[in-house]
Design goal:
The chain is α/β, with parallel strands linked by helices. Helix content is about 30%, strand content about 10%. The protein has two domains: about 140 residues, 3-Layer(aba) Sandwich (Oxidized Rhodanese, domain 1); about 120 residues, Rhodanese-like domain (Oxidized Rhodanese, domain 1), CATH 3.40.250. The strands form three sheets. Strands 2-1-3-4 form a four-stranded parallel sheet, covered by helices on one side. A four-stranded parallel sheet has the order 6-5-9-10, covered by helices on one side. The protein has a two-stranded antiparallel sheet with strand order 7-8. Strand 3, helix 4 and strand 4 form a beta-alpha-beta unit. Helix 4 crosses helix 9.
């Protein structure tokens, strides 16, 4: 998490505004244009932080790294630029940005806890001016250690593995297959356990580390954990929470459940674990 004021005072930190609303693609950029943290630049979940939707890969596949590189360079962000991501206070969209930047190999990327709502509630400044920066040079160093492929998940699904934990981040009713408001088939990837992503937060802020540790107390921090959700977005909230409290071997299956069921022969589980 970021102490944004301290970073602003000590370094040339850049804010990344990630506000978004599923089903209303104009919401985020509209909010940004109304006002934003001074100097912030805008990243759209579907245009900037996701790739083109295909038959496989899920509803929000990983973006083309070169497209993200171009956007970072357009915004004057180099590999040494500290970046602080925020959303409205939902938690998942800023987490998605943080995850994507970590995947690209960026070293100093942070999440503004509480998002824009908390920023304004504390009387911090905002502006309407759209900043323009000189173009930078950015080098990509992909970190494949935090991205789980479909093949990896296929290998462990439904099998009793002592070394890997598969965590489903969706709401319990979707995990149990009771309802599925978005994807074409209800259920979960076989063998998954449920850790609802919203339990990472309270009133729009991520829980303190001791509370997060209590959430994950039943898991061995030395084991590999693969986190998924419906399309790879809300899983990022659990990814952030796990990394924050010392789980080192954590990956996101970015295609997530929407990718899993795009292969018609893949089984799904319903009911209790």
């Amino acid at each position: 998490m970021a102490d944004a004021i301290k970073l602003m005072e000590q370094k040339q930190a850049r804010f990344a505004d990630c506000r978004f609303k599923l089903g209303d693609p104009a919401f985020g950029i509209g909010e940004y244009n109304k006002d934003h943290i001074p100097g912030a630049v805008y990243f759209d979940l579907e245009r900037d932080l996701s790739g083109r939707v295909k038959k496989h890969g899920g509803r929000h596949p990983l973006p083309d790294p070169m497209a993200v590189k171009d956007k970072l360079e357009e915004y004057g962000i180099s590999n040494s630029t500290p970046i602080i991501a925020y959303d409205s206070g939902d938690g998942q969209y800023a987490a998605r940005f943080v995850y994507i930047l970590l995947y690209l190999g960026h070293k100093e990327v942070y999440l503004l806890n509480g998002g824009y709502r908390e920023w304004r509630a504390k009387g911090q400044p905002a502006e309407t001016n759209i900043p323009v920066y000189g173009k930078s040079v950015y080098s990509i160093h992909l970190n494949h250690e935090i991205a789980a492929s479909y093949e990896e998940v296929k290998e462990i699904a439904g099998k009793a593995r002592e070394d890997v934990i598969l965590l489903d981040s969706r709401e319990e009713r979707r995990f149990l297959g009771i309802e599925e408001p978005i994807d074409k088939k209800a259920g979960r990837i076989p063998g998954a356990l449920n850790e609802v992503w919203t339990h990472s937060l309270e009133d729009g802020k991520y829980l303190e580390p001791d509370q997060q540790r209590d959430r994950f107390r039943s898991y061995d921090s030395k084991k590999q954990i693969i986190v998924y959700c419906g399309s790879g977005v809300t899983a990022a909230a659990n990814f952030i929470a796990l990394k924050e409290v010392g789980f080192e071997n954590v990956k996101i299956y970015t295609g997530s459940y929407s990718d899993w069921i795009s292969y018609e022969d893949n089984p799904v589980e319903c009911g209790s674990e």
